[in-house]
Amino acid sequence: MKRILYTNSFNQEINEPVDVILSPHFYWIKKIEIPIKKLKDAREIAPTLFKLERESYIFDVFKLDNGYFAVAFPKKLELKIPPKFIRSVRIAQIEFYPYDCLKIDSNTALKKIDDLIFCFPGKVECPSVDEILPQLELSPKTFPLFNRLEIDKRVLIPALGIFLLFNLGFLVRWYGDTQQLKRLEAERSAYLTRHHLPSTTFQLEAILEELRQKWNSQLHWKRGLAIITKTPLKPGESFRKIAFDSNRFTIEVTTHRNLNPYFLSHKFKIVESQLEKGTYRATLQWR
Length: 287
Fold this sequence. Notes:
The chain is α+β, with helices and mostly antiparallel strands. The protein has 7 helices and 13 strands. The strands form 4 sheets. A 4-stranded antiparallel β-sheet has the order 10-11-13-12. Strands 1-2-6 form a 3-stranded parallel β-sheet. A 3-stranded antiparallel β-sheet has the order 3-5-4, covered by helices on one side. The protein is elongated and about 100 Å long.
């Protein structure tokens, strides 16, 4: 089965079944940076990642190297290949992902930057796509953009008329429901915008989880700081310094006592400490 990389300069005449690999000229691609656990969640937020009109694009999501990628295709994507000869449609991002650089022709190449494959002009020294394609092991991921049945209009139009005649009542109810859904969606979007809320439940849950983790972390270290500040000092003893960096406390206390036993009793790990010239210095890690 023949495979081709379809670029914006493609000019071959195709008269046999082919697997088409679209170059980055024909789709938008983004790596999803927020934490994702399920492909379903990724598909839910995919359209929100692009500044594109949803009515004009098809959105999809796939997974590579444990990361999720969102892709958008124009609905009116037209290729110079008869649809009946298109066996499958794929994208360069998936099929050529193992390669950092592939030469398309003498003036253009595919390059991978931050896990995303783009087309770049210029002469480069890297393997040629034409050398890779014959032995390339294709992925199972395809995009059904051109699986169309060619139907005779002389048969289609009368059949459509009969369908409309017998389903007019259903279509009227369907139209009414569709309009109601559009009104509800518009009200929902206006509410989210007015209250500065994310557009999906998944995004809201991700924000809440991030804030919850930050709160728990801050609460954890505040407890450690509370124990330090309650150190039972004697008359003439005082704190000279309390600092926090990353996950450790650095303290200095004017005293002639070794305060290690107090901090150990409160589950601190003493990274280092010293008592010198009336000053106790220590670096503590709160467990």
